[in-house]
Design brief:
- The protein is an alpha+beta fold.
- 16% of the residues are buried.
- It has helices spanning 2-13, 16-44, 99-108, 122-128, 148-178, and strands at 51-62, 65-68, 75-78, 81-85, 91-94, 114-119, 137-140, 143-146.
Length: 182
């Protein structure tokens, strides 16, 4: 409760810029650091730490989704590949970023085949701010048709922007705390 009083007191004493440096900057830096660490974790993930979802392929679809980039007010349309397995009442999603692989995947796992889709567990999804239905690897008849390395590389590339921004924000916060920025 004291921290609420402190923030309230600071709103009357500090300028808007100082309030942003004192409260908003570290909050955004913490969130971006969480995203960065999650993406780095996903880059290091091993197949045995993923959840294996095995079932018969019942349907493929390219379903419209609206995606909003972190920090943006605008959304854009994406068409990921949705894979439905007989044992599950939800679709598994392969991101549109892998659309170059869609045609080859559809020929390697026709409807009726039994495949295994590897996804994140619920705790991993929460810690990495990722979806539990995202596909990380697909195996058909013991043969890997969508390797985990593709998702690792994707997550590594997605880790770079929040990593750079959070580094800049932490440096700014450090200088603010040192009294060099008012």
């Amino acid at each position: 409760m004291n921290w609420i009083k402190k923030i309230w007191q600071d709103t009357g004493e500090l300028s808007t810029r100082q309030l942003c440096f004192k409260y908003l900057l570290p909050l955004v830096a913490i969130i971006l650091t969480w995203i960065f660490i999650g993406k780095i974790y996903l880059n290091q993930i091993k197949i045995n730490s993923l959840v294996a979802n095995t079932g018969q392929v019942t349907n493929f679809a390219f379903k419209l989704e609206e995606e909003t980039t972190f920090g943006s007010r605008y959304s854009h349309d994406v068409y990921p590949l949705k894979i439905n397995l007989s044992n599950y009442n939800f679709d598994f999603r392969l991101r549109e970023d892998f659309s170059n692989d869609f045609r080859a995947l559809l020929t390697k796992m026709p409807e009726g085949d039994t495949i295994t889709i590897f996804t994140l567990g619920s705790l991993q999804s929460f810690l990495c701010l990722s979806s539990q239905t995202d596909v990380y690897e697909i195996v058909n008849n013991g043969k890997t048709i969508f390797p985990l390395d593709k998702m690792r590389n994707y997550n590594l590339l997605k880790a770079i922007p929040p990593g750079i921004i959070c580094l800049i924000l932490w440096i700014l916060y450090y200088y603010y705390r040192k009294g060099r920025i008012n």
